[in-house]
Amino acid sequence: MGKIKEHEMDIYDGKKSKSPKLCGTNYPISISFIVVNEFCERFSYYGMKAVLTLYFMNYLHWDQNLSTAVYHAFSSLCYFTPVLGALIADSWLGKFKTIIYLSVVYVLGHVIKSVGAIPSVGDSNIHIALSMLGLIFIAFGTGGIKPCVAAFGGDQFDEEHANERTKFFSIFYMSINAGSVLSTIITPILRGDVQCFGGDCYALAFGVPAILMVIALVVFISGSGLYKKSPPEGNVLADVCKCIGLAIKNRWNSSKFDPKRKHWLDWADEKYPRRLIHEIKMVLRVLVLYIPLPMFWALFDQQGSRWTLQATRMNMAFGSTFVLKPDQMQMLNALMILLFVPIFDMVVYPLVGKCRINLTPLKKMAAGMIFAALAFGAATLVEVNVTKTVVEPAPAGQCLLQVYNLAESDIKLEIPGTLISEPTKSYEDPPLYKLLQLGGPSKNITTVVTYNGTTYQCVESFTEKKAYSLIVHSSVTGIACQLASDNIIKSKNMEAYLRFINRRSEAVNITVGAVDFYVAADYGISQTKGVERKEYTNVRCRSGSQEFFINLGLLDFGASYTVILEEGTVDIPQKMEDVKANNIHIAWQIPQYVLLTAGEVMFSITGLEFSYSQAPASMKSVLQAGWLLTVAFGNVIVLIVAEGAGLDQWMEFLLFAGLLVAVSILFSIMAYFYTYVDPEELDKLFPDTKVNEDQDDLKKHQMGDYMNLNLTGKSTKM
């Protein structure tokens, strides 16, 4: 991207401007505004994005596949729009005005998104419309300013202060990660621990990032009088596209073979200089290597979607007091990247070098792909074990059934179309649900119950795809049956589901935490409600004029319980576990985060380093745009798979792992045939077209420092 500094323009006027400096240093005061702006903006973006998938599922009530698809469509748009932001900044408005105007769009997106999360604002269609409009504005805002802010910070330094500029980018990078880490910790707390409008407070979880973005804009504008502002110079990306377009057009229209034009790009030499054409050839060779790269990002960006959804079905408790939230696990990646970068640079790579292994940049990238594939292999193993606690819904023409024997002794049931025919013990927690064949949408089925040598018949109506509990109990006539509809879907809010069956002769009112239950007398069944996961040792019950307390014990993550209330004051009632609790601890996700972060260090940082080293100074912005587009297309891949594959989650994880292994093999073959080049040789090849030294050096410094930020930092957080 073309950049001419204000102080360089002053040189042509016979003077050189000096911006105010921080006390006793060579750092311009203006950079403090830019660093604070970046911290607030990254807090705003990652805070909103951390709770986005759960918002889709719990507030908009979308299923997992649609939630994942929209999440990745938004992520993809955020990485398509930087190209647009760069074009606007370099060809029209300049970086300063681009940041201002698109930050206003950014703020509007956050405000619209927050308003859409208020239940009283319209119906569900209004909520969806506001949410999608807000996300589109946010994507254009964050993507549009992405290529501008870091480079604008580099513009603030005089050329003689190159070392200070390099240190600034390290500070800038720290502000990015600080904003990311803090937001992924804080916004899930605002979502889950603060209750508003009768549930999780998504309006607050989106509102606080909106406030941070307003602060970011105000802080940035506050430094306006101190900034050096570069005027737009024209975008090299547009020149590259025009040159390629002309070459294709001329080659297509020509029917003659020209031996002087050995490469198809040479057909643009009638208008464009040979040096530019040669530089484009160098860039295209690198861009060809980019073709397999989106598959890595397809896996990497699922931390905020599929991995977060996996966490909702795991045990999040650490000890008896601290409970992690599923959307907080994403902070692991940001924390570990800070740890892994120096470890790899100072320990891992030197040790590999001592083993006489030539670990080239492309080999590192291929190894990074393998680490990411291993991460999804680990995620597959976790998912297989997680699904063991999940009750799969019945298919069409069938339903699920379990039997509660609340009679005084064992019974024997015979139910046509099911495996239930063995004796059922009294008050025993029933085994797994059994499939009941209906042969259609619904059916009346006669159940034969043998109790104390006497046979009874119960006729019940069943509907396909539902889950039921058949409650068999003693009555004045011997045996009676009652059919209850069950909830088998695990709570998306990390709650436990609870219901009561009342054997008492009087109705009972029960308060569990902040949730009230009412159970009618004589085998009445309460509504199933979600309660907070915790130990309930002193639950208050009121029955007529009597008050008593019961001990429900631990009501755990994701479980569904049925509690039997007996006559008298039984302190510890019978508790049935209809759906098992999440028994796989969230700590089992740590290995997959470790592997993926290791893969990111080897792939992402090394990839940017490789791109920088293989591109001419004037073309580095083109490769930066190409790199961001690989992230965008990676999210498109997830969108397609989530909506089209229809696989079980563990199979989908395994599919992604296998695809990335195959892609890494393809990339390794392409890398084997790639020949590394030295862009500095261009001056020797084209001495007659060498650009003005001052401008060339200036561009190298600016683009080099901008790339250094990416080389030492987490590129996807830019």
Automatic annotation (TrEMBL):
Keyword Lipid metabolism in record: no
GO cellular component: membrane
Domain of life assignment: Eukaryota
Location(s) in or outside the cell: Membrane
Keyword Lipid biosynthesis included in the entry's annotation: no
A GO MF term: symporter activity
Recorded topology in the membrane: Multi-pass membrane protein
TM annotation in the entry: 43-62, 68-87, 99-120, 126-149, 170-190, 202-221, 282-300, 331-352, 364-382, 622-641, 653-674
UniProt entry keywords in alphabetical sequence: Membrane, Peptide transport, Protein transport, Symport, Transmembrane, Transmembrane helix, Transport
A Pfam family this chain is assigned to: PTR2
Database matches in InterPro entries: MFS_trans_sf (IPR036259), POT_fam (IPR000109), PTR2_symporter_CS (IPR018456), SLC15A2 (IPR043381)
GO biological process: peptide transport; protein transport
Similarity-based family: Belongs to the major facilitator superfamily. Proton-dependent oligopeptide transporter (POT/PTR) (TC 2.A.17) family.
Name of the protein: Solute carrier family 15 member 2
Gene source species: Umbra pygmaea (Eastern mudminnow)
Taxonomic placement: Eukaryota, Metazoa, Chordata, Craniata, Vertebrata
